[in-house]
Amino acid sequence: MYISKLYLRAFGKFTHKRIFLGNKLNIVYGENETGKSTIHNFIEAVLYGFDDEPKVNALYKKYKPWDSNLYKGSMTIDGIDNNKYLITKDFLLGTTKVFNKDLEDSDNSTAEAENIDCPGEHFFNINKTSYRNTVSIKQLGNKTDKELAIEVKNKIINLSKSKDESISIDRILNTLNSIKEEAGSEDNPKTLLGQYTLRLKELNDTKETILNRNRQIMFLSMEKKKLHSKIQEIEMRVSNLNQELLTYELSIEKGRYDKALPIKTELDEINEKLLKYANEENIKKYSESDFEEASKLNSNLINMRDERHNLRNEKEKLEEKLKGLEEDISNNIKETFDIVKMNDNYNVYELNRFKIDEMKNKIKVGTDSLKDFDTVDINKFIDKYKSVEENNNKIEILKSFLSDKNYETMKHFIKSQNIKRFMINLLGTIFIVLACVAGYMGYYYNVIEYYGGTSIVLFGIISYSIASKYKRRVINAKKEIESIECQHADYDKNIQELKSQIDEVLKETECADLNELKSNYEKKENQQNIIKEKLKLLEFDKESLVSLEKTNNDIEKSLIDDLTLFCIAEITKENIEKSNEIYNKKDFVQEEIVKCRNFKNEIDQNLNKMDKEISFEEKRLNVILNSNKMNNIDEFKQIVESDQKLNELKNKKEYLESMFSTILGKTNIEELRIKTKNVNTYDIKEIDKKEQQISIFKLNEEKNKIEMDINNIDKEIDEIESNVRNLAEVEEEIEYYEDKKTAFKERIQVAEIAADKIIEISDSIKGDFMPLLRKAISDNFSYVTSGKYKEVLIDEDMNISLISEENKDRNIDIDSLSGGTLDQLYLSLRISLSNILSGNQNIPLILDDSFVQYDSNRLKKSIEMLSKESERRQVILFTCQERELETAKNLDVKFNLIKL
User: Fold this and answer.
1) Coil, strand or helix at 898
2) pLDDT at 837
């Protein structure tokens, strides 16, 4: 598996940043502050999120974009069961979604998403700690060689016991032992636990003493409270007795009058009211049960109408809201609309506009530069030079004709032919002479000799015939010589004319000789070539400009069509951002529309139901009113109230008249008023005055005695309280020491359990994990050091040493290694660990400035090792130096370069 694409939608300094990675070696190069750490942390944040620790959580704030409302990004992982996965992370919402689909055309797939909280654990099968210990490799840091040796040694020891280089088992066990030693034992008064036990015993004794004293104080307080109650009772009884003596006499009569007077007044008022109801026949007859039923129905109808009115108001508001939502621009966006494509088109459109401006400027500069050349003059000069060159060629040809050897050859040929002709003529003459001699001799002396002379004549004739042939050749040769001489004359004339033309050109071009003319020609020709090249480039740029403008016009038309959906006519960055905001609101608006429609349907159903219920209840009410001959419920209510008031007045009058007669008896109320005119109202009670006075004296004596007992109790309570501590303080202190004691016991128990488990797990890891780790470290370290160190040894006491081939397989202590070698050992450790802990899965390997302390040889071997490692899994190397790039190129290592 490998990370094929990173999309930093809004993360740190990056917005819409796309990074494409290869499945083998990738080198991410950038100077400081170009964003390497941002990309590195983005990978970890997408896979594992940000930590909850306050110190690390600062990364969340650090990489939160300032100029964007978004905080999100995505990562594409290939090669998992021949599938491609897109991981999207929204850091603001804290949501992570994973899509399983072919995602080449878009980062926001419409495929069904799977919620996976931690993609790193899901895909890599390792947690965040293991990820930092294995996959993510950083430089050890700027330390001395001794410090580096100690750090590497500690990391290997920690790994051998815990599989985590940052966890030290010995340090943890020492910490757990210190917890037990700090707490101590309850039996040892010199330890904290023993001191807490003694203090608790003292406090519990004190608490028991306080509780006993408090019980005593409580008992005395209760006695005191009882005595106070008795005093209050006595005082009340004395007061009542005295009051009875004072009010006894006239209170009886006055009481009778006071009771009768309001009754008489009320009777007068009732009689006046009864006069208004004198005509009792006007009151209609009705049913009391019908009235109760009608009242309930009327009350229900009022409530139902109010509820219906509220529902209608709510419906109107909902319809108004629904209308606004339906008219919202975002609601009119089609599902097929691709907002990511529009954003990408806008980015391409802006980039093309920038390129078009650059190209136009380039064409203008190129056109202006051509104005510096006089093309017509250059072409004329070149044509003239070519004519001169052509004339020179003609002169050379003519001279070659003049120097033709045919003329001399022809002369020699004529001479040789004349000699041959002369010799043959001479030979023929000789044959003729011989023939004559032979004829003469044969004629006169022998016939045979005569015939011999005849044959000699024949040879003579043949010789003359051959000589005549040579003669014709000589004649023809002379004619040819004459023709050549005429041609040479013409050649000389032509040569002179050509030289004259050349001189004329030299004069026109103001050149002293042909060398200067050639030199100027070469300059002119060079200028002409420059002009041609520039014209070709200009033509190419113009064609590119036309193509780019056409492409951008198509994109512009597409963008305008897209923006039209958002009621936007102009292509600007603000309008694009506004379109994104409208699009992002689309789902919310549609959800609200569905909610409003559902709610409106629910209200319509309730209104229909309410209308039916109101209609039914109104019919029932009308039936009751008609049966009682009432026009409406108000009339019904008024009749009932009038009848009820009349009956109440009659009953009340009878009751009051009976009571009035009982109170007065045979006495007249006016006489009773005069008799009690100056008397206040008191309750009537029959008493014996003398006996009542004796009772008052005895009660006062009893009160004095009780007050003396109360004083004695107060003195005793004060004495007890002055010698006793506050119970709450003692209990609080007891609770404090019990909590401390319990906490120490729990810590000791937890420390003992933890120590046993840690030792057990550490021994298991040491037996199973350490041989694999030692073998893997040895192989990798031997490779990066070119076999200088054959093996890494770790004995049972965790002493770490190396076997050096240069020192005849002698053990080398880790403390004697240089910083660069220790860095190589650390790199070998992390790569080996990543292979083991991941179960040899081909998960990516990420290195961040891991070769700062390496010299060129170490760097070369490390790059070779990474190249070899990249054959089986993806390697991502972050660096701020060009050494890694140059080394990889020199080694002919194939890698994917990302420059920031």
Assistant:
1) strand
2) 62
Identify whether the C-beta of residue 828 lies closer than 8 Å to the C-beta of residue 784: yes
Sorted by where each begins, the domain ranges of the chain are 288-328+585-629, 375-530
Per-residue model confidence (pLDDT) at position 450: 45
Nearest alpha-carbon partner for 740 in 181, 177, 200: 200
Contacts of 195 by beta carbon, 8 Å cutoff, 6+ apart: 189
8 Å CB contact between 72 and 79: no
Q: Is 136 helix (H, G, I), strand (E, B) or coil?
A: strand
Q: Kindly report the backbone phi and psi dihedral angles of residue 377, in degrees, each rounded to the nearest multiple of 5, phi listed first.
A: -65, -40
AA identity, residue 831: I
Give the span between the Cα atoms of 70 and 343, in whole angstroms: 15
Q: What percent of the chain has pLDDT over 70?
A: 77
The mean pLDDT value of the chain amounts to 77
Count CB atoms within 10 A of the CB of residue 470: 19
Whole-prediction pTM: 0.37
What average pLDDT does range 368-373 have in this prediction?
79
d(CA 651, CA 695): 48
- Over residues 52-98, the pLDDT tens digits come to 655 446 788 888 898 788 999 999 998 777 788 999 999 988 889 99
Amino acid identity, residue 293? E
Q: Could you read off the pLDDT of 27-38 as tens digits, one per residue?
A: 999 988 888 889
Q: Looking at this protein, which amino acid is placed at residue 38?
A: T
DSSP per-residue string spanning 512-524: SSHHHHHHHHHHH
* Alpha-carbon span 695 to 688, nearest angstrom: 11
At 124-178, the pLDDT tens digits run 888 887 777 677 776 544 344 444 455 555 555 555 554 444 455 566 666 666 6
Instruction: Specify whether the CB–CB gap between 822 and 784 falls below 8 A.
Output: no
What kind and span of H or E run contains 645?
helix 633-664
Highest mean pLDDT among 49-58, 236-245, 278-287: 236-245
CB 785 within 8 A of CB 821: yes
460 neighbors 431 (Cβ within 8 angstroms): yes
What pLDDT is recorded for position 142?
A: 39
CA 435, chain centre distance (Å)? 131
Q: Which two tokens stand for residue 689?
A: 């005055």
> How is the beta sheet containing 875-879 ordered, strand by strand?
136-138, 845-848, 875-879, 25-29, 896-899
Work out the burial of residue 528: count CB atoms within 10 Å of its CB; fewer than 13 is exposed, 13-18 middle, 19 or more buried: middle
Q: Which residue has the higher pLDDT, 139 or 878?
A: 878
Task: Report which residue type is found at 876.
Answer: I
DSSP 93: T
CA distances from 464 to 117, 455, 457, 639 (A): 127, 14, 11, 186
- Edge-first strand order for the sheet with 95-100 is 14-20, 2-11, 72-80, 83-90, 95-100, 113-115
CA distance 196 to 204: 12
Determine whether 884 is exposed, middle or buried from the number of CB atoms within 10 Å of its CB (0-12, 13-18, 19+): buried
CA pair distance 485, 491, nearest whole angstrom: 10
